[in-house]
């Protein structure tokens, strides 16, 4: 089996993945819930389509016939990852997704033994969330053996897709999750800090991001925080009182929010993606107070996601990774990200 299947191919990121794969001479199978929505893209690229709903397990397993690797690109992954992972376990197909959701990574990590028994790889967060930050965190940790604290700061955005906006809206109910002494805990209020992304200090706000999960498996560092550059909308959302966050996360409020999201552009334009850059700063400390830091600049997030997720899929399909749960680093090492164009890593 060598086929790659992209589920959620009619979505914004799914289309980027399909287009990038076709440009590389690959012929992925395009899949999703609605066959009619898949046809325009399939006709343009000359690719096969398969359709199945995530709440139809038998049909979902059927569309994985002959498939080596599934790129799962249909979020919010808190709702969609489990049924697709179950189908992959049953069908013997490797699973990867592009989530940044802590609970999804933790749930898939708990299926490590099941994946080994099925002879497949479960590798979430194979895109911008969290390939570059996972690799940079592991690089900094190897520069400071015995590190006990890790901070990842992320800056620079070229806009969000509707899918990302939905995931962020769904996550409003969560407080700021961090890792303390190896355990994920929720802080009562989002911490504030600053980070130098190469152009002087910028204000940052703490957010519960996928690295709180993935960096633990990739580095073993027991205390992990993630901060984002505090652009206005993110800072405002992070600062909402817990009670208001719970209300916003309710079914009625989410329905209204999603109606507003439906009116947004599908995602950043091609010109916006081409001009945007993202920057990551990883810092590590050991018990004696020694500090080390590295910074990395990458292409815009959706562009990078198409590149990294497809490369992960190709490597999984070739059998290059041992069965079980993996992060990008445990599968490919801290330097994996350096294999992509216009990625620059600097030790500070």
| Low-pLDDT regions | none
Strand order of the largest sheet: 3-2-1-4-5-6-15
What fraction of the residues are assigned to beta strands by DSSP? 25-35%
What would you report as the Rg, rounded to the nearest angstrom? Answer: 19 Å
| Mean pLDDT level | 89
Number of helices: 15
Q: Please state the structural category.
A: alpha/beta
Report the end-to-end length measured between terminal Cα atoms: 44 Å
Oligomer: single chain
| Overall morphology | globular
Largest sheet: 7 strands, parallel
Q: Helix proportion of residues, in percent?
A: 40-55%
E-strand count: 16
State the main characteristics:
348 residues, alpha/beta, seven-stranded parallel sheet, seven-stranded mixed sheet, globular
Describe this structure in words.
This protein is of the alpha/beta class and 348 residues long. Helix content is 41%, strand content 25%. The strands form three sheets. A seven-stranded parallel β-sheet has the order 3-2-1-4-5-6-15, sandwiched between helices. Helix 1 crosses helix 14, helix 4 (77-91) runs parallel beside helix 5 and helix 7 packs across helix 9.
Q: How is this fold's topology laid out?
A:
Elements: E1 3-7, H1 12-23, E2 29-32, H2 35-45, E3 49-51, H3 57-62, E4 67-72, H4 77-91, E5 94-97, H5 102-109, H6 112-118, E6 121-123, H7 131-143, E7 147-155, H8 162-170, E8 176-180, E9 183-187, E10 192-196, E11 201-206, H9 211-219, E12 223-229, H10 232-238, H11 242-248, H12 251-262, H13 270-275, E13 277-286, E14 291-299, H14 301-317, E15 324-325, H15 328-332, E16 344-347
Parallel strand pairs: 1-2, 1-4, 2-3, 4-5, 5-6, 6-15, 7-12
Antiparallel strand pairs: 7-13, 8-9, 10-11, 11-12, 13-14, 14-16
Helix pairs in contact: 1-14, 4-5, 5-9, 7-9, 8-12
């Amino acid at each position: 089996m060598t086929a790659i299947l992209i589920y959620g191919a009619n979505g914004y990121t799914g289309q980027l993945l399909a287009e990038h794969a076709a440009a590389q001479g690959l012929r992925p199978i395009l899949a999703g819930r609605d066959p009619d929505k898949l046809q325009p893209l399939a006709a343009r690229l000359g690719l096969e389509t398969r359709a199945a709903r995530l709440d139809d397990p038998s049909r979902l397993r059927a569309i994985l016939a002959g498939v080596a690797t599934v790129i799962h690109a249909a979020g919010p992954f808190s709702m969609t990852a489990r049924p697709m992972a179950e189908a992959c376990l049953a069908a013997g197909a490797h699973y990867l997704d592009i989530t940044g959701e802590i609970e999804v990574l933790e749930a898939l990590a708990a299926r490590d033994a099941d994946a080994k028994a099925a002879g497949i790889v479960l590798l979430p967060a194979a895109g911008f969330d969290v390939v570059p930050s996972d690799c940079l965190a592991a690089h900094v940790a190897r520069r400071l053996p015995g590190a006990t604290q890790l901070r990842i700061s992320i800056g620079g955005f070229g806009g969000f897709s509707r899918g990302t906006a939905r995931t962020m809206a769904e996550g409003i109910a969560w407080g700021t999750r961090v890792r303390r002494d190896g355990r994920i805990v929720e802080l009562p209020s989002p911490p504030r800090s600053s980070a130098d992304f190469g152009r002087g200090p910028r204000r940052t706000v703490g957010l519960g991001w996928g690295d709180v999960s993935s960096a633990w498996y990739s580095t073993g560092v027991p205390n992990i925080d993630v901060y984002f550059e505090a652009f206005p909308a993110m800072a405002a959302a992070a600062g909402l009182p817990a009670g208001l966050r719970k209300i916003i996360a309710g079914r009625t409020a989410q329905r209204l929010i999603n109606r507003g999201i439906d009116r947004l552009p599908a995602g950043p334009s091609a010109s916006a993606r081409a001009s945007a850059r993202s920057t990551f700063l990883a810092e590590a400390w050991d018990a004696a107070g020694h500090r080390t830091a590295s910074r990395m600049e990458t292409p815009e997030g959706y562009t990078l996601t198409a590149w990294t997720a497809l490369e992960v899929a190709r490597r999984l399909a070739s059998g290059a990774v041992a069965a079980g749960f993996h992060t990008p680093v445990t599968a490919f090492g801290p330097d994996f990200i350096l294999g992509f164009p216009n990625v620059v890593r600097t030790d500070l």
